[in-house]
Specification:
By secondary structure, the chain is an alpha/beta fold. The protein has 8 helices and 12 strands. It has 2 domains: 162 residues, Periplasmic binding protein-like II (D-Maltodextrin-Binding Protein, domain 2), CATH 3.40.190.10; 94 residues, Periplasmic binding protein-like II (D-Maltodextrin-Binding Protein, domain 2, 3-Layer(aba) Sandwich). Helix 1 crosses helix 6 and helix 6 runs antiparallel to helix 8.
Amino acid sequence: MPETERAPPASPLRVRFAPEADYGPFVFRDEDGRIQGLSMDLLARLAAQARWQLEVLPPRPLAENLAAARRGEVDLLSSLRPTPERAQYLDFSAPYVSVPALLLHRAGAGPAALGGYAGRPVAVGAGYAVQAHVQRTHPGVRWRAVSDDAQALRLLGRGEVDAAVLDVASARFLIARLRLDGLALGEPVGFDYALSFAWRRDRPEIGQDLQTALAALPLAERDALVERWIGPDSATLPTSPRRWLGRAGLAAMGLGAGLWWLLRRRRQRAAGPRPGGSAGGGSR
């Protein structure tokens, strides 16, 4: 081509992001209708690095976002736990947050460990991945499945259940947002949420851009996000959130590669997507 002619610049990659409406402090809609949270701030930073044309869709519950991704109506999700079922139509980044689930109880009104609640009512999110774990490890508890973590804490505050199980970050966020008094953080229940970004399998260019930007993000910026959304006293929690955003890029990438390998192996062994399969429910 003549020197006076140049190829037009490549168009920015259009990426449709589907946020959750109520998973604070990671991604949620605030009182003014804005999408906020640690995952949203991190995504904005990564999208700028990748020079995406990021389109933020209206916030919806997790189950609806998963179904939309399966139909090809959205491209990117955040704050999501990889599962073999979701790996049929999504690929996942390395986890950028690993959140321990723990017990919450009324201060001075119950033991701090889940083992002390045999025969007593305890709330847990219906369909959340932690539900199956705690029901299996503590079958003697009178489990009460609820729609979301906010409902679990409201029931606890009113005395309708004796305790609740949810992740530590959401617990602290909701206690402040709902202005709940008299609740205490108990002990971890032996389950962590390793949360990742996820993109449609037929959009591998999104994953390539995202992984490159995530690996290049300075650790100081990651720490600043934790400070903003979790608080400067986060090191006093049962499991320090300073490890949530992982080590620097290559270590996180190695973890992600191992996870992808495992999920792909399971897909290869499966007969294919199950007809009429669910989008994953409320499981994180």
